[in-house]
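hey so i finally got around to running the thing on that chain from the lab meeting. sorry it took forever, my laptop kept dying and i had to restart like 3 times. anyway pasting the input first so we r on the same page abt which one it is
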Amino acid sequence: MDERGFFSEVFNQEVMSSIGIELAWVQDNHSLSTQSGVVRGLHFQTQPKAQAKLLRVVRGAIFDVVVDLRKQSSTYGQHVSVELSADNWQQILVPIGCAHGFCTISTHTEVIYKVSNGYSPDHEGGLLWHDPALGIDWPISPGDALVSPRDTLWPRFNEFNSPF
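ok and heres what got predicted. didnt touch it at all, straight out
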């Protein structure tokens, strides 16, 4: 960065391949949440339309969560969380077989993400974002979160039969 601004290489297939990640990105999505406390997720898509995602925040900040839904995985049912922001420049890769969601922790937050498959309503699924069984320490209580009606209806983890 200098007085003119900055240049950033945000994706490089050769670098991804060198660390064993071979994904073909088919679509870029851009999400704007104008308020802090917006929760989106926990979402996934099933085969044959399952998606990997590569996310970054270009404005504002989010608390980002990935839950492993792969039955044969040693981390099945566990989650990772990280703060992604325009200031910290971090990205996260969400593998196929994982649910993903985030909560905005600043106003006017913009998230850009690549997906390895297009959106398919016939293959979408989710988990209740605030299910205590997941052990996620969200930065907002369920009563204060701004959530779509759809995201309040997903099953809890113990009611869920993973397709992965």
